[in-house]
Each structure stands twice: as C-alpha cells, then as structure tokens.
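fold-stage: in
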Amino acid sequence: MQTSDFDYHLPEELIAQRPLERRDASRMMVIRRETGEIEHARFSDFPSLVDEDDLLVLNDTRVVPARFFSNDETREVLRVDVVAPRRWKCLVRPGKRFKVGRTVEIGDSVGTVIDICEEGGERIIEFDVEPDENVHGHLALPPYIERPDEASDKERYQTVFAKNAGAIAAPTAGLHFSDEMLSALPHAFVTLHVGIGTFRPVSEEDVTKHHMHSEHYELQEATVKAIREAKRTFAIGTTVVRVLESCAGGKGKSSLKAGQGETDIFIYPPYEFQAVDALLTNFHLPKSTLLMLVSALAGEELMLEAYHKAVEERYRFFSYGDCMVVI
C-alpha cells in the first residue's frame, strides 16, 4: 500500500476559505457501498438517511484558542500540550528564534525555551505566568485556510454541541449540524481532542511505515450502552471512528469498553471495521491518513472515484467545505 495510491488533483479554488451562511446548507455526496452508487444531495437531506433504530455518535470536543503571537508579532507559538503547570509543548515559528534559553513575551507573560524535542522539533517553553488564551489566544485554523482567524470563526469553527475543551482543530463533520437537526435524531457523544497531527502529511511512501500521532479520548458508559442497543452506528467524523475502533479492540461492538486514554490507531485498507457501520465526513487532503481511513470503509477505488466526481462537480473541500456520507 503506497501513499501515492491516495493522491488526487484538487484545484486551489475548491478549498473553502469560509463557512456558508447556514450550517446545514452544504452539499452532501452519498456513497452506497453495496451498489457503488454515488449520489448528490444536500446536508439538509441527511435525516432521511437515518433510521429510527440508528445511533449517531458525535465528538463533543471543544476547540481552544491555542495559537499565540509574540508582542512584537515576529514569532508564533502553537500550544500542542500542557506538560506541567506553566510548561507547554509547542510548535514554533521561526524555529531559529526559539533556541534553548531564548525567551518570548506574550502579553505580560515571559516564556523561556528549556528543551527541543528530538522527534518533532517541538519546543518545551516554561512561562513565569501562563498567557491568557482568552485575551491573547487565536484559533489555529488549518494551514489551507489562507487568512487569519476572525471573530466569526469563534462560533463557526466550533460545533453547536462542543462541550469538553481541549482540541486544537475542529471535528469538522459535526460543523454541519444545527441544534434543530440534531435534537430530532438519536445521538450520543464521545470526546477526542483533535491535535495538530491531523494536518501532518504522510512522509513515508510505504503506508505501513507511517507513525500515527496520538490523541486523548474518552468514551462514556452511556454511549457504549446506546451503541450496543442500536441497529447501526453512524460515526459523525473520522475522530469518532478512531475512538470507537480503538475501544472495540478488534472484537466487535459487544467488546466496546468505556474509559479514557490515548489512541494512535491508524486505519487504512484493508481493515475490518468492528464498531462503525456508516460515516459522515468532510473531504480530506490528498495522501492523508484521513483519506486512507475513509477508503478503508468505502473501498479505495470507489473513494477515489467519488473524489474525482467531487472535483468535477465543484464541491467545496476541507474543514469549511461540503461533506460526504458513506452508507
């Protein structure tokens, strides 16, 4: 299995830079696995695909403003983890200005670089006082959104059901739901705090050699019970897939266990799904781990056909873009 097997051509103008006015106004591609049919619809049609004995499972993580700029605006700090009080693990830019011992001022806080991580080059920065994210923090919009974050992003780059703070990136499949639609559908929640690793490219050509990033999750007992009682589990987003498949342990829905921990599960073809029957997801980057995951569910050939049709039909791509459902 080669990384290049999951490539496709995407014109830049199809990358959505802003959300539509209405959350549920997006287009929706419907992929039927059994027949190989590909249909075009609207997300407002989504409830018609959900049966009364199905269960939607959504990720209720909340995006935090984790991106900071120095007072002189020459340096950037992206908090990826809090390793101790006042001590952050960060991605930084430019790296040459964050050598060990160098300092960065953010508001009234002064941070000192105390270590450089060998594997990813992240910096460990210790602050005298933690910067106030509500005052100085910015949303870390994905790199393909080529604009600074704006006031409107505080609402729209957040699901209406966001609850548990901790994500750097939004679980974007959930962005399409309004309160009204969700309240009319059977649903439950998991939590997975989406990290910056979701945007990192696969550097290995041999897919099996790629090292997947780790993310923190929590699966509640009430959600496990609801999944076991449902006829079909409808994952809303790839983050939900990662939680459920990790907790199923390769043994089916009956083996799902509630709990919390870290998952670095990497799903790519061929893979036998244990806990997920259907999936709603946005369109993903070429050669990405998320495209590989969706291809494992729908089949590599059918998924690439769907992506080519999405380009032909001028769908809007990525976080603020349109969606597809695999049933």
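fold-stage: in (second)
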Amino acid sequence: MRITVSQSALMRALTVVSKGIAAQATLPVLAGVYIRASEGTIELQTTNLNISIRHAIPANVEEEGAVVVSGKTLANVVKNLPDAAVSIAGGPTGVEVSCAQSHFRLVALDAIDFPEFPTFDLQQQVELPSALLSNMVDKVYKVTSKDTSRPILAGVLITVEDNTIRLVATDSYRLAVCDASSETSSVEGSFEAIVPGTTFHDVLGLPSMTDTVAIGLTESQIVFSFGSTTYVSRRIEGNFPNFRQLLPQSCNTTVRLDGAQLAQALRRVSVIALSNPSVRFDVDADAGLLKLSASSPDQGEAAELLGVEVEGSSLSIALNYHYVLDCVNAAAQDSGLTLELLSSMQPAIFKSYASINYLYLLMPVRM
C-alpha cells in the first residue's frame, strides 16, 4: 500500500472512526484502524464488536492494499504533524508514515484478521434533519441510565410518525420527553427503535455529520448513514416503559417560572446542599412566591424567594437539585418553564413549549 493524503483530512477521518476503537481490546486488532486504499479513496474502519464505523476520504493512491495499525498511535502521530501531505506506505508487518521532515515506522497487523464490516438488509429507514435531531438528543441524553443491568433504560426511544419526531429517555428516577415537527422522508407506518444513548450522542457529534442523517433498522442493528460515513450499532431489544402511564392525569398547582432565574437561585441555594442534594420547593399561591431552601447540619441553611405566577393551591415538595438543573439547562431558553404539581409525594412535571416541546418528570425526595 502506498498513499498520500492531507494531514487535516486524515486527522478528521481518524476522529470520525475513533469512537469504534475498543477501549480494552481482548484482541489486538480491535485496538486498530483498518485502512484500505483503492481507486483514489482510502477507507477507514474500526469496531469494538458492539459498534462498527466506516468512513472514506479521497487520496492519491499509488499502490492499493490494506493494513491495520494502532488507532491511538496513528492518531497521536497525525495530530502532531504539520498541515501538509502525509505519505503512508507499507504492508502487513509495518508502515512508514512521512510528512515534511517527520518520519515514523509503525507496527502493523495483517488486515485479513480484522472483522468484516457488518452487512445489513434494512427493514425500515427514515431521513431526518441532523441539527434538529442532535438538539433533541442533547435534551434527553443525560436522563439515560448508567446501570448496565437494565440495558433498556440506557437507551433512547425514537419514534417518527406523521412528520413528528419524539425522543424519550428515563433512568426510573426521572423521565424526559421531547418532540418536534419536521419534514421527514416517507416511512410506512411509524418508525420506532431503542438506540443506545451513548451511540445516539456520539454519532450526531461526529465531524463528518451532514445536514441530514438516514437511520435504518434491521432485526438487531441500527444503521446511521450520512455523507461517506456509516455507523452500525446493536439495537436494544425489549419493550420501553410506557411513559404515558407515569404522567399524572391532573395537577393541583401550576407554577410559571423563568428558567434562568430558577437556575441561578438553585445554584446559590445548593451551596448548602453539597452532602444532601435535596432542595425544598415551597409554593405560596396567595403571595405568588416560590421559596427554595436547603439545610445541612454541617454547613447551615440557605433560602431564596422567587416571584412566580401560581394557579391552584399552595404546596411543598423536595427535589434533587442536580436533576432540576439538568431540566432547566435542557429546556428551551427562549420560552417560559411551567412546573405542575399534584402533591408532595407525586412526581413534579416541568414543561416548556417551543420549536422543540419538552417534558421532564422528576420523582420527589423525602422532605
């Protein structure tokens, strides 16, 4: 194999496929990047057996071939090269990397040992605007569970129907739902899948992302295709919790808040809540006030009053301030935030309406 490619294009390509490199590889080849050169193109592949990424870039190919080199080592080398032409030449035992006055010889592995890229026959596919989808994923991603014993809760449920995109995530303590209207490519019936939250977040942040992304499904895989990049991940199998059953059918108190003011007040009050993340919300319907308070036997007490619009009765509830801040940060900054309460022992519901509608359910903590 003998190729020449620009340093910036190669570095960008390595950044795209780096998410597929196995962090703790049981097989040395899984820590590598597969590079295949043919007909004016080099194709880079990585896999950790759960996800597989393929990305192609144009290059001057003098001699075709394929090789596997350490992904971490190659990325570190290329990152520190000047922005000039990079030459790579070699075979199964080693490759020479040259750029300007820099020369490296890297150990290589035989490309024949690298796992084949997954083949797939898509049962369904939908094309969505990537910027909108990325914004929606950012709003629900933090709510996915980190408990590996319950893989369903580590996923994000995506449904597309009648030009409405909806994402749902829950970790059993809180629930986030967002939906938006958008022109989508035709899909028969409804499109539905549970995507690993990390996968969803990573793929939409890749530097090769285009204006739209095609999402396809097989029985066991989810396939993201955009530009010259293909990202294949295992689907999460099972039934996602019916989030509608978790939503109270009514509320006794509705509070209209300014999200930025609430966030600032929470950060001040939470200085006292370091050991105990519980912050008490006391709604005074008659005075139109919301009192935030926290106490700690070791550090003291803190309280702050916010002027709010209240409909209904006065009520008190305690909530984890970390989770409330996640909600406020995710809600639309250009719209108001509404808090709906039924009782001190029932979930609190935060809502905001904008181009992306957002609902956040949060279980209370003991006062």
